[in-house]
Task: structure prediction
Amino acid sequence: MRIGFFVWEYPPRLIGGLGTYAGYMTRDLVRMGNDIVVFTTNPGSLKTSEVIHGVEVHRPLNVDASGILRIIVGNELQSWGDQLKFFSSIFTNDILCVAKFLNSLVRKDGTKFDMVCVHDWLGGMAASLLKAEIDLPVVFHVHSTEWGRSRGMGSKVVNDIEYQTSVIVDRIITVSYAMKEDLVNHGWPGEKIFVVWNGVDPDIYNPKAITQHEIDTLRAKYGIKTDERMILFVGRLNWVKGIINLVQAMPHVLKEYPKAKLVILGTGDEEANIRNLLKRLDINDRVVCRFEFVSEHERILHYAASDLCAFPSLYEPFGIVSLEAMAMEKPIMVGAKGVSGLREQVVSSQPGQTGVHVDGGNAADIAWGLKQILSNPERARTWGQNARQRVIDYFTWDKAAKQTLDVYEGLVQTYHRK
Result:
């Protein structure tokens, strides 16, 4: 099949898990014999068209329409202030990408597409434009929602875009059964919704590919001694990741395990709060903060160097970092309350246990989970081994691509029989 793939971020421009997903998914779909044409954003420094790993990528140069939007949009978007420029960039990029898709590729060059897919609300406006202009099946990939990201206090405009997109598209793919349940509970059409778990590449995330020297060097960089236990958090530093609750849990952990040390790797709007909290709790010497976005290889080194990984999210439709850690044979503590795809990844009881489930909103429960793993190093190693096997069995990009393609092919076949 030839598929148009509309996504906000795409390698080498990576902001979060969506870009990682898009990079791996499109490459695997191409490897399976499909033609994938990506339409994405251009920060101004990238080529407007190129081929990457067999994927045709288009990045139109954008324009800033925030000035005119400030005049014509409603009160809510006007209240976004400087963030209206962000909305403008999404709005105009969707228009430019759809215009290139329709006018240049389809109408001028005569390229035949079997279907298109769009990702999150960032591609929702593209879906509406496409449905109005061309008779093609459209799939809406939902990786998260506005109400989930914002504790129900987000933008009505974004919520409306998400819901409208769910109505007009032909299929919806989301990342976990927890997420599907949440969408249905919010009035989305359940009969359209299919679940496909995300994946990871266990050949890249392979503990055997990292040397002991590399591990020792990284641990020494953070002042972690051989008899100390490294707890690793990787992710965006915002409320949904439970990072503040994880820091609050550390004094409880340190009372029983004084040689534990937490490494926080990531960036986000909680950085100042984390610094202040570490001072108030007087645990600066037991927590290392590295507030930056690191390369994939360096992230893999951090997993390899750690003894356990902690992802106490309060809202996590899926969570790729946990899979990365599992592939690296690490026992995992995850937030499993509410909308949590993490609880579908991590097995919290025998047989085949890979970690523990906690309430990410409760620091005492997080501390309990960490102590469960710290209490028995040999058992923790077994959980880590189980975790890698679970990834290989259920959570590879190859499996995710095949299941996604099954949904695509089923839609295309029924769509053209209408």
Summary: DSSP finds 17 helices and 14 strands in the chain. Residues 296 and 327 are 14 Å apart (CA to CA). The mean pLDDT is 94.
